[in-house]
Design brief:
Length: 243
């Protein structure tokens, strides 16, 4: 089965390192093939050059965020329509770092998803519990609460979900395979039963070349969202070809 492998570069890299990444990944794609769908989300400023440098391959691009507004006097914002305009196809929404450092609320996230869908982008909506909630056994309650954002999108088939336990992001602590399988299956069940939404569910949080194949083999995991390990083309390719 085809999996969705998404790279989230966060605020890392330069124009030069972006070019080098593209050269390396292009040579990997010429040497071997993957049936998986690959998406790279660089800093927005590098989207256009990444897109140009990847033009021969089948790799898609995504943004790490978009504005909740369509257009107008919102200094510093980038609209979903602008992202679509430069050929971007996906956008991360509600990443835990956005929730933590920019106080993004459920209402705001709902507006961002709406703007992304209007612009024809595929939103990758990120959810996940904190370490405290995990240890207190409240994971399912937190996920159920975060999924309420989808109340406005009942029946939608164009949203991707990413389950990223906050305590596993950038820490090297990966959730157990059992926890990943259970959380992804739980999310699928809620989406289907309460929102009539059928969507791929990605796992994110310290995914590396060495653990990708066991995570991607889980029946409920339709792909992975990779941060740190996606910055090196060779490791990203190892993950991309893990199944
Ligand atoms: P990580 O980040 O792979 O570095 O843990 C994942 C993410 O934040 O999407």
């Amino acid at each position: 089965m085809t999996k969705l492998i998404v790279a989230n570069w966060k605020m890392n890299g330069t124009l030069e390192s972006t070019r080098k990444f593209c050269q390396q990944i292009t040579s990997f794609t010429q040497e071997s093939k993957t049936r998986n769908t690959l998406v790279i989300c660089p800093p927005a400023l590098y989207l256009k050059s990444l897109k140009n440098d990847l033009k021969e391959g089948d790799i898609k691009t995504g943004a790490q965020d978009c504005s909740a507004f369509s257009e107008g006097a919102y200094t510093g914002e980038i609209s979903a329509r602008m992202l679509d305009d430069i050929g971007c196809e996906y956008v991360l929404i509600g990443h835990s770092e956005r929730r933590q450092y920019h106080q993004e609320s459920n209402d705001l996230l709902s507006q961002k998803i709406q703007r992304a869908l209007e612009a024809g982008l595929c939103p990758i909506f990120c959810i996940g519990e904190s370490e405290g909630d995990h240890e207190a056994g409240r994971t399912q309650d937190v996920l159920r609460e975060q999924l309420k954002v989808l109340g406005a999108f009942k029946g939608n088939k164009s949203i991707v979900l990413a389950y990223e336990p906050v305590w596993a992001i950038g820490t090297g602590k990966v959730a157990t395979l059992e926890d990943i399988q259970n959380a992804c299956a739980f999310i699928k069940e809620i989406l289907f039963n309460e929102y009539a939404v059928v969507s791929p569910i990605l796992y994110g949080g310290s995914v590396k070349g060495k653990n990708a194949s066991s995570i991607l083999s889980l029946p409920a995991a339709d792909g992975v969202l990779v941060g740190g390990a996606s910055l090196q083309a060779s490791e990203f390719w190892e993950i991309a070809t893990a199944v």
